[in-house]
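Entry 14. Structure prediction run on the chain below.
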Amino acid sequence: QVQVVESGGDLVQPGGSLRLSCGASGSIFSMFAMRWYRQAPGHQRELVAQITKRGNANYTESVKGRFTISGDFDKNMVYLQMDSLKPEDTAVYYCNAHLSSLYDLTPQDYWGQGTQVTVSS
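Output returned:
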């Protein structure tokens, strides 16, 4: 089994910063990429940022220059540093791990339970 757990969500004022953390554990054979998604009320879940095992990072346009994704694939950890936060960043943030397990070498997506980020004065 594979578990994915996020942490770090909080209430923060506009212009503030937060750092989200996510770790994957269990029967992991190989990690290929780790991603952060978010879902605001009434909106579809969207991909915020992704980092691959090779270190390639991609961001959705609305967070470029404000958010930074980093990863430690030896520890199966990913982080999202969020600066200059705006009210429109308010959402539940989900961690996604794209990996193959010891029981199924076909890469699959595993999800965390989500962590709430609220940007409000």
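The mean pLDDT is 97.
Filed with the rest of this week's runs.
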